[in-house]
Amino acid sequence: MKAVNLITLSLIAAGLTAPVLAQQTEADKDDFYLGARLGVFSADDDRVAVDNNQLFFVDDGFKTFTSGIEAGYMMTEAWEARIYYDYMEADLVGGGDAYGDSYGVDALYHFNNNIYAGLGVNNTEIGDVTDVAARATVGHRSFINDNLAWRIEGGVQRGWEEDYTEMFANIGLQWFFGGRDASPEPRPRPEPQKAAPTPEPKPEPKPVDSDGDGVIDANDKCANTPKDYSVDKDGCIQYENETITEELLVEFDLNSSKIRDNAFDDIEEMAEFMKEHPQLDITIHGHTDSTGEADYNQWLSEKRAKSVADALVNRYGIESSRVDSKGHGESQPKVRENSAADRQANRRIEAILKVVNRVPKERE
User: Fold this and answer.
1) Cα 166 to Cα 164: distance, rounded to the nearest angstrom
2) Domain with CATH 3.30.1330.60 in the chain
3) Which of 126, 134, 154, 102 is nearest to 47 (CA)?
4) 259 burial class (0-12, 13-18, 19+ CB within 10 angstroms)?
5) Residue 127, class by beta-carbon neighbours within 10 Å (0-12 exposed, 13-18 middle, 19+ buried)?
6) What angle do CA 108, 114, 116 make, to 5 degrees?
7) Contact between residue 280 and residue 322 where contact means Cβ atoms under 8 Å apart
8) Are 160 and 133 in contact (CB under 8 A)?
9) What is the pLDDT of residue 208?
10) What are the two backbone dihedrals, phi and then psi, of residue 244, each rounded to the nearest 5 degrees?
11) How would DSSP label each residue in 18-62?
12) Would you state the pLDDT for residue 178?
């Protein structure tokens, strides 16, 4: 098993470090390092190991000692990739020792020149019992000189197969082949060269705004705009939408569809509005109060709506194709009926027309 693990680790190391070593001829060799590591490991209290064909629990304190090697590559100033191998010697509950190894791959992120954290995948084998785990690491690294650095780190790993939760801590020395800048002080930056002073420009003539709209003549595409209107950046009048609403309300006597004499002025006013806006069509909505049978009220509401529609067409000259009528009976009261006045308010026709016009926007 150990021979297989060593072969696997060698293949991983070769795969990760080959492109790094291949680039050393073109780069400064300052991003690749090798290191030695020494540490302790706290096994899960459920972890077991095989010793002399017998099953034992591994002691769950920090009583497993580790030693190993590592190789890493600084992909950027912040991101680092690392592989490692540790030989492990563990105490067994009830006496005796078990041996194994641990290897894996980490991706580390450096928050600054010293502090880093990362995630990785680990394979831990103690006494012929193997578990694959996800590992989280935090650590601190300081440079002794431009090539040599020491580090200390710790973390926790969580098994995928055996559900082990285990902790570790270790220290290490790392040798950077091309050297790193170990000085804590920031590198000085060259001072920018001062440009020669430019001569002061000659004053330009004051721009002219002939029509006083706030846009100078050189940019004004709409000359002589009225001063009362707001203009855009080209000096042209800005427009806004204006909604005009015309409403018609005619009330009727009880059980009657005859238009009252005093209602014709309102009907004529609606007709004039329709002549001013020939694009509009109208629907007259007839209504009744709640007295009487529903079928009768429906018939009466339709007659009321049609009488007003006929007045628009026959009396005031609106084209019949622009006028429609519809009865709603007692289904849409205007007010809740608690009195004779309420019932009178519900005996009615209603119509509303709206038109949106674009008008010049006045200056504020």
Assistant:
1) 6
2) 241-360
3) 126
4) buried
5) buried
6) 25
7) yes
8) yes
9) 80
10) -110, 130
11) HHHHHTTTTS-S-SEEEEEEEEEEE--TT-EEEETTEEEEBP-SS
12) 77
Q: Contact at 8 Å (CB) between 153 and 12? A: no
CA distance 186 to 11: 39
Task: Provide the terminal-to-terminal Cα distance of the chain, rounded to the nearest Å.
Answer: 87
Cα 150 to Cα 36: distance, rounded to the nearest angstrom: 10
pTM assigned to the model: 0.45
Kindly state the average pLDDT of the residues 269-291: 90
> What's the pLDDT at 92?
86
Q: What is the CATH code of the structural domain delimited by 28-177?
A: 2.40.160.20
Residue 147 CB neighbour total at 10 angstroms: 16
| Cβ pair 245, 353 in contact under 8 A | yes
> Which tokens in the block code for residue 208?
């002219």
CB 308 within 8 A of CB 349: yes
Type of residue found at 115:
I
Q: What is the CATH number of domain 241-360?
A: 3.30.1330.60
Arithmetic mean of pLDDT over the chain: 83
Tokens in use for 127?
Answer: 């006494």
All CATH 2.40.160.20 domain ranges in the chain, comma separated: 28-177
Place of tokens 């309420």: 342
Q: What is the pLDDT of residues 104-129, one digit of tens each?
A: 999 999 999 899 999 999 999 988 88
